[in-house]
């Protein structure tokens, strides 16, 4: 029997597990846009430094974990009121491969949207997705996101050698984060 899915706010002690999932996701989905030398290197250690800093900071962001038993199966990170026009940024949303298409990502996105409705001053929600990541684009579009802009991907850590050429990214937008929040259950 599979343990039930539970959600909780991330804390500083979760940085290593988040970094591991983040690095694995980048290796699977960012190959071609990011340099193989970067992805095949110690990207997990680099992500651990990033996540340790993010989770130690207070205010303005939220990171939510999805767990089954002791296993991290997904996470979402939101930067509240990131952009005056587009609203709050879903900076990261990653789910382990064997839990794709099981509702974990949808539930994380809905919880991120609920946090925006409760904590942000604006109602908008947006994210960036790599142009090559057609599956993620379809996921977001199926949940009502609109593609409004295409831009060039910035290099991870500001190091241009970590990119292959000039990969592109798409801004996907929800004008109202509440549109992603599930209706309350009827009794």
TrEMBL record:
Assigned EC number: 2.3.1.-
Name of a matching Pfam family: Acetyltransf_1
GO molecular function: acyltransferase activity
Highest taxon of the lineage: Bacteria
N-acetyltransferase domain span: 5-173
Gene3D superfamilies: 3.40.630.30
Nuclease listed as a keyword: no
Coiled coil spans: none
InterPro entries, sorted: Acyl_CoA_acyltransferase, Bact_Acetyltransf, GNAT_dom
Keywords: Acyltransferase, Transferase
Cross-referenced PANTHER family: ACETYLTRANSFERASE, AMINOALKYLPHOSPHONATE N-ACETYLTRANSFERASE-RELATED-RELATED
Name of the protein in its database record: GNAT family N-acetyltransferase
């Amino acid at each position: 029997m599979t343990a039930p899915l539970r959600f909780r706010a991330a804390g500083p002690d979760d940085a290593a597990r988040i970094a591991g999932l983040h690095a694995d996701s980048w290796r699977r989905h960012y190959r071609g846009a990011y340099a193989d030398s970067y992805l095949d290197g110690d990207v997990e250690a680099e992500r651990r430094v990033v996540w340790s800093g993010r989770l130690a900071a207070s205010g303005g962001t939220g990171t939510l974990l999805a767990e089954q038993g002791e296993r991290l199966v997904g996470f979402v990170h939101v930067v509240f009121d990131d952009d005056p026009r587009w609203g709050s940024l879903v900076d990261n949303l990653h789910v382990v491969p064997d839990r794709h298409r099981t509702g974990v990502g949808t539930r994380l996105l809905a919880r991120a949207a609920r946090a925006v409705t409760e904590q942000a001053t604006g109602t908008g929600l947006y994210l960036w997705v790599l142009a090559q990541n057609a599956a993620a684009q379809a996921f977001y579009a199926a949940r009502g996101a609109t593609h409004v802009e295409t831009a060039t991907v910035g290099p991870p850590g500001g190091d241009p050698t970590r990119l292959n050429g000039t990969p592109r990214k798409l801004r996907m937008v929800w004008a109202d984060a509440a549109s992603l929040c599930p209706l309350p259950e009827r009794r």
